[in-house]
Amino acid sequence: xxxxxxxxxxxxxxxxxxxxxxxxxxxxxxxxxxxxxxxxxxxxxxxxxxxxxxxxxxxxxxxxxxxxxxxxxxxxxxxxxxxxxxxxxxxxxxxxxxxxxxxxxxxxxxxxxxxxxxxxxxxxxxxxxxxxxxxxxxxxxxxxxxxxxxxxxxxxxxxxxxxxxxxxxxxxxxxxxxxxxxxxxxxxxxxxxxxxxxxxxxxxxxxxxxxxxxxxxxxxxxxxxxxxxxxxxxxxxxxxxxxxxxxxxxxxxxxxxxxxxxxxxxxxxxxxxxxxxxxxxxxxxxxxxxxxxxxxxxxxxxxxxxxxxxxxxxxxxxxxxxxxxxxxxxxxxxxxxxxxxxxxxxx
Length: 347
Description:
This protein is an alpha/beta fold. The protein has helices spanning 41-49, 99-102, 148-151, 154-166, 182-193, 206-214, 250-259, 279-284, 298-307, 326-333, and strands at 2-11, 14-22, 29-38, 51-52, 55-56, 61-62, 66-74, 86-89, 92-93, 113-114, 131-135, 139-141, 175-178, 199-203, 219-222, 240-245, 260-268, 288-291, 317-322, 341-345. The chain has two domains: 2-153 and 313-345, Alpha-Beta Complex (Quinone Oxidoreductase, Chain A, domain 1), CATH 3.90.180; 161-291, Rossmann fold, CATH 3.40.50.720. 24% of the residues lie in helices and 30% in strands. Helix 4 (154-166) crosses helix 5 and helix 4 (154-166) crosses helix 9. The longest helix is centred in the middle third of the chain and has 13 residues, at 154-166. It starts with a strand and ends with a strand.
């Protein structure tokens, strides 16, 4: 048994780069040299707060689930992959046999093992390590055109593609996106690729809104600085056809409900606590309020869209830090005025 360096969280704000065990790939497995990994909102919650909701870090956990790298070795029986292939790694590992897997809804697997998650004991270790062994089925080749950091954006883009699919047809529609963090960013890119009409983005700080304008938002509004910024969109029972609530804020959801026209759809993407929802408005306007959770077939599609630059995720990657500076990278990722997507480099 050899070792490899990894980004390990021991407790709230106790993040260490240290050696962890590394095995050899068994049948159906591959050894991957990780090139890049994106810091996600859930990683930040673990680091800053020690968890989220009732999910708490109770033992050391390797963080990270947005990773890509290069195959270094193949286990027995692996077909369709070669040493040297650059791959995006799907962090989702459903059991394949439970009720929901049998219904082709593996994102709801009862025995899901999702990388970098403290929901189970023992925790499911994540992908922020220089080398890791993964199931071959979790590896999707990305080709040689895009950078490895772009490939690591496949997981958040898959989340966005699944969210957009929850809304039904978006082509030509007027759309509101509330909350422009990294997920709001990939939702905007996915909406543009799907042919949405005007997309208006809202947030509470100016810096991400400037980026939203650069990558295609028709309007980007600071609803903290101007509380009436969306008042015109509330007229006549609402002017937007669709909304994607990406902030996890009850206030943002209420604003979306006010701005979406009767029989429109609101997709709740952001995760928050308990909401006070104005159900009278949902009922009176016959709105469709839909949740969205992770992805499954969308992962391979996300890889393909990135690999062909049909969706260009590069503007969202605002900083790349070496693994040795992991703690500083997490601090930067927590500063919404300074960064959008911060990635770790493992080279």
